[in-house]
Amino acid sequence: MEERKGFGSNFGFLMASVGSAVGLGNIWGFPNKMGASGGFTFLVVYLVLAVLCGFIVMVGELALGRKTGKGVVSAYHVLSKRFKWLGWLGILSPFFILFFYCALGGYCIKYVVVNVGDLFGASFGSAAFAEVAAANGTSLGAEVFNAFMGNPTEAIIYGLIFVALTMLIVMGGVSGGIEKVCSVGMPALFVMLLICIIRACTLPGAVNGLKYMFVPGWAVANGIIEEAPNFLTVLSTAGGQMFFSLSLGMGAMITYGSYLGKKENIQKNGLLIVIMDSIVAFMAALCVLPGRFALDPNGDLGGPGLLFVTMQNVFSRMGGMGPLFGILFYLLVVFAAISSSISLLEVIVAHFVDKARDAGKGDKRKVYTLIAAAAVSLGCILVCADALGNSSFSPADLLGIAEPKAWAADWLDFWDAVSEGVMMPLGALLMTFMVAYEIGTDVVKDEIEQCGNKFTAFKFYNVCVRYVAPLGLLLVLYGQIKQFFF
Ligand code: PFF
Question: 117 CA to middle of ligand 1, Å?
Answer without folding.
Answer: 30
